[in-house]
Amino acid sequence: MSKTPGQRRNIHQNPGTTHAPEDPKEMVASGVGESNRNFPSHHCTVNHDVDLVKLLISANTVPRRFARWWRRICLIDHHSPIARLLFRSDTAIKREMSRQLTYYPGTIHPLSYFRFIWNCLMIVTFASVFQLIPYDITFLYRIEDYYPFTAFHAVLLGADCICLLDVVINLYTGTYTRRSQRVELNLNIVRKRYLRFWFWIDLISSAPDPLLTRLIPSRTLENSLVYCLHRLHFHPGCLWDLWSLLSVIKIFRFRTFLRYIHSLCEWFGLRRKVIKFIAILATVLTVFHWSTCLTFLVLRLAQGTDPERIDERSWTMKIPFWNQTSLVRYMESSYRTLYTVAHITHDFNESMTYDDMLMSLIYTIGGYILKIYLLAELLIFIRILFSSASKYHEYRYELSNYMRHEQLPAALQKQILSFYDFRHPRIYSRWSLIRSVLGEQLYGAMRMQILGPLLRACPLFRAVFTEQQLTALALGMHFQLFMKNDIIARWDGTSDERAWNMVFIVTGTVALYTSGWKKVLHLEDGEHFGEFQLLFDANTVKFPNLVAVENSQLYILSRDWLDRFLQPYPALRRNLIDLATEHLRQMEQMQRGSVLEVLANIETVRMQPSSSSAKPYHSE
């Protein structure tokens, strides 16, 4: 689900909170400077983590508390790495929570904590059924393999029950498309897509066939479907294990199994190369297991299971095979599959049946293809070692060594590394190189894709500047990253007005404070501030202090650069100032209550309006 630009939030002055001292001497005496060296003149007391579940769902009884707990674990999990990558900020995640609570209260979010726990359970279940189902169909064909009810079939029955429960949960769970990065919570659309194809595969392959087998007379178990195919003699008794054979279509869910593994690895922060290695390992082991079962299944179809009727040239007649347990037969089949696929050794003097020759030929060709694939993956793995991720770790290591060499304080080292990790999330890129490769025209188009919506959201710029001029503004802006509690702009009454910068918030939250450090409002994703301060002096508009409430990504437009840009266009500058003056005059005519009412109408999730009588700042 793509994020919409955030709306402005007023901050309620909680009487129980402690405000930051206004006097620098008072700040030093209170010890704030020692506890927060990065922001010595401000101690943030903003409660940004609003519990929307408690706010919107009342729970005064035990059943309602349980219902609220269930709703909480079904909401989007803000600790999920996929959710953080998709929504990028706490504000966007809270909007997603608000959207789900308001419009889709009965839907389980695909990025919720409950869905993560359930996916972990399904990883174990899928890994079990992918191993148990072919083994059950191929190697368990005798009556004593089914009577009495064995622990093997008890595990298989439990896996089938979990898969049936997964079918029900899928009907109440939204979907997340990784390619388009879209979250769909409308159950009507989700169920319509699910019922088209995957529902029937999940339902048929999850039938509890071990339980159905208990309802069949023991004498009928001698005539399995595989046995009837071998004898080419069919009758209704041959269909008793049809459900067991149909359960092999569960293999179509192997891609879902790999996706669950990928999500679990991302949750634990594993690197991409490790995730790919785990996926390849799971694929190779599953293919090898199914190939082993297929080896014995072909033998049953071609030769049968009666040792007296099997061709003497078959490999099963050269070893004590038929009088062994199913596990020993599986080990013999797996060894034959291994040395055929891996081409360990071949005894060409060995006499084989035609079906043995065909299987050996297929497995040998498949083994060569597998070797080529693994070799290609190894070369890709070596190439990845020199990718941007390796540069990220290399430069991070150099930065750590430099800070240790300079004997910087441990707190400062940790802060610098946190800034580096947030600025380069597991990758390292140079915008100067990208700009030189793309050229100004393509680079300007790319910048407009990022900054165009932010610039057009400003009424002054949208009304005065053309599209080409907005592109020039986008090229003149520069990116900056601010960590939590960093000062973005400070105004003490004596600062240079030409040093003021207009800020555009990509992700994060920025708080506005008066010169006396009184809280005014919050700016969030997609918002901006400072267009009037770029055009007027301190006698016309107030210059506030800007502070990052959380890790925030901003684009900066400096007043000095805008003056140089407007210097060749005096008429454009005059129109811009006239329009800004008109906006200021209209805003000054509005009463304070009207301003707060307008802010309340455009807010999605907000705290109560401030009771402070501080004068509001002009912001679009």
From TrEMBL:
This is Cyclic nucleotide-binding domain-containing protein. Residues 501-583 form the Cyclic nucleotide-binding domain. Residues 1-17 have a biased composition (Polar residues). GO terms for cellular component: HCN channel complex. InterPro entries: cNMP-bd_dom, cNMP-bd_dom_sf, K/Na_HCN_channel, RmlC-like_jellyroll. Residues 1-32 are annotated as: Disordered. The keyword Transferase does not apply. GO terms for molecular function: voltage-gated potassium channel activity. One of its GO terms (biological process) is sodium ion transmembrane transport. The chain crosses the membrane at residues 116-134, 146-173, 274-299, 361-386. Keywords: Membrane, Transmembrane, Transmembrane helix.
